[in-house]
Every structure is written in structure tokens, then in C-alpha cells.
């Protein structure tokens, strides 16, 4: 499997405060890679750098072999930010249409992708409502649908299931596994341990550093524990 995302010695400060410190990671083609860590540990800051939204950092990031930020690579990434970037005055469908048009999808493909993405997040019955009338969970679901709209090769999802009920959360993870089996590469941030268990490989983040990493079973073996939570504690992360 080739490397899709490579970060080398990535550091970032806001003023005098260093929020990422010498991050090294490699995300391989066709895997689900999880960044797990408590609130404020630096996950969002890191994914913004990985997707090319923030170029003000030290170190190197390459996505699909190109130094980021890179315009050609951007269209191959579906990014779901933590705060929803939606148009509240427009309906769910109009939001999807708008983002699909940015990627210049042809009419038929656009229709298919909108139907697929809306169904995936169970928003089909709500597409004609204005987004301002959506609940927080519905907005998250619409943001996920938008990240998928152009059928990107790489998905980068920042806490995609926050505010989403357990049943839909399971079906979203099921779909992420299916997308992975199709060959997509997925990076996901979470602070939910049972979601971390579903990742192929993990990086545990604390105070802007990767404190340990590996597959869930490798990590549990290495630290001789039964739960990932205990790995986090033993690796020096205290409680998540
Ligand atoms: N624009 C900013 N200016 C100053 N400090 C910032 C800024 N953005 C983030 N930070 C700080 O950087 C650190 C890392 O924040 P970040 O949002 O990356 O963490 P996180 O792990 O994603 O947390 P959460 O799970 O709550 O989203 C925090 O201490 C945060 O306060």
C-alpha cells in the first residue's frame, strides 16, 4: 500500500504557545487512520494542516506526493470540518447542489451523488427544509454528505459523529468501512474509544504530540491492556 499522506516534523504555534510539536505520521492508501485525543490536544489544528487549509506551520506535509497546500490535490479530498460550513437560508438539497456545482459534477452524476450522500446520512426526507431549521445532528449529517459529494479519494473527517445518535453513528461507521473497502483513504478524529477501535491504525495525541501509535490490537498488546483507554493512560496521556 502506498503512502497517501505523509507529515514530517510538523510543528505549529499560536503566538508563544506551541500546539503541535514534531508530528510525524504516514497514512496509507485504503486505511482508516484515527487521531484520538482529548479536547484541545491539537487534532483539529493538525487536520487543517493535512488538508492544506493552514500553510503556516513548520515541517513538511505531502498528500498524494504533492507538498500541501496544492490546488490539484484539494479536489481529491473531502473535508468535514468541526464547525459546520453551511448556508442556513438554503435548503439541505440546495446546499448539496451548491457544493456539487463547485466540483463541476455533470447533471446526472450530481443527481446520483446527492441522492447517495443524502441517503447515507438519512436526510432524504428533510432535503427540502431550510438548514436553519435543522438540529445540530442534522447539520453534522449534512456536512458529512457534503464532504462525500464529489466522491473524493481521501476523506478527512473532524469528529464526524458528534451529536449523532448511536444508530446512525453505527451506520456511518459501516459506510466508512465500505468506502475503505472501495479503496478510499480516511482520516478521522475522535475522542470516542469505541470509534478508535474501528480504525486500522491510530495516533494518540496529547498536548500537541503523538504519544503512541499503531493498530488497536498492536497497541493493546504492546501495553498489555484490554482497552484502548488504558493504552492512552499508560502511554502518558492520563485520562481522555
Ligand atoms: N486560532 C487559534 N488561536 C489560538 N489558539 C488556538 C487557535 N486554534 C486552536 N488553538 C489552540 O490550539 C490547541 C489545540 O486546539 P485544537 O482545536 O487543534 O484541539 P482539538 O484536539 O481539535 O480539540 P477539540 O477536540 O476540542 O476540537 C488548543 O489549546 C486551542 O486553544
Automatic annotation (TrEMBL):
Gene3D superfamilies: P-loop containing nucleotide triphosphate hydrolases. The keyword ATP-binding applies. Coiled coil: none annotated. InterPro entries: AAA+_ATPase, ABC_transporter-like_ATP-bd, ABC_transporter-like_CS, P-loop_NTPase. Keywords: ATP-binding, Nucleotide-binding. Residues 5-232 form the ABC transporter domain. SUPFAM superfamilies: P-loop containing nucleoside triphosphate hydrolases. GO terms for molecular function: ATP binding; ATP hydrolysis activity. Transmembrane segments: none annotated. This is ABC transporter domain-containing protein. It comes from Saccharococcus caldoxylosilyticus.
Amino acid at each position: 500500500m502506498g503512502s497517501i499522506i505523509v507529515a514530517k516534523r510538523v510543528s505549529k504555534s499560536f503566538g508563544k504557545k506551541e500546539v503541535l510539536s514534531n508530528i510525524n505520521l504516514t497514512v496509507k492508501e485504503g486505511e482508516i487512520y484515527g487521531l484520538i485525543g482529548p479536547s484541545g490536544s491539537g487534532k483539529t489544528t493538525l487536520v487543517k494542516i493535512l488538508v492544506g487549509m493552514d500553510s503556516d506551520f513548520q515541517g513538511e506535509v505531502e498528500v498524494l506526493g504533492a507538498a500541501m497546500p496544492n490546488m490539484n490535490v484539494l479536489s481529491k479530498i473531502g473535508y468535514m470540518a468541526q464547525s459546520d460550513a453551511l448556508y442556513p437560508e438554503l435548503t439541505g438539497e440546495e446546499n448539496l447542489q451548491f457544493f456539487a456545482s463547485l466540483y463541476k459534477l455533470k447533471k446526472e452524476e450530481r443527481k446520483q451523488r446527492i441522492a447517495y450522500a443524502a441517503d447515507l446520512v438519512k436526510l432524504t426526507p428533510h432535503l427540502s427544509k431550510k438548514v436553519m431549521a435543522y438540529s445540530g445532528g442534522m447539520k453534522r449529517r449534512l456536512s458529512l454528505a457534503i464532504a462525500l459529494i464529489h466522491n473524493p479519494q481521501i476523506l478527512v473527517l473532524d469528529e464526524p459523529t458528534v451529536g449523532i445518535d448511536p444508530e446512525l453513528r453505527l451506520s456511518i461507521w459501516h459506510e466508512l468501512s465500505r468506502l475503505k473497502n472501495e479503496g478510499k483513504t480516511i482520516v478521522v478524529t475522535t475522542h470516542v474509544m469505541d470509534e478508535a477501535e474501528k480504525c486500522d491504525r491510530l495516533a494518540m495525541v496529547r498536548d500537541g504530540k503523538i504519544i503512541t501509535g499503531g493498530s488497536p490490537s498492536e497497541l493493546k498488546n504492546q501495553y498489555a491492556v484490554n482497552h484502548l483507554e488504558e493504552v492512552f493512560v499508560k502511554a502518558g496521556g492520563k485520562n481522555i
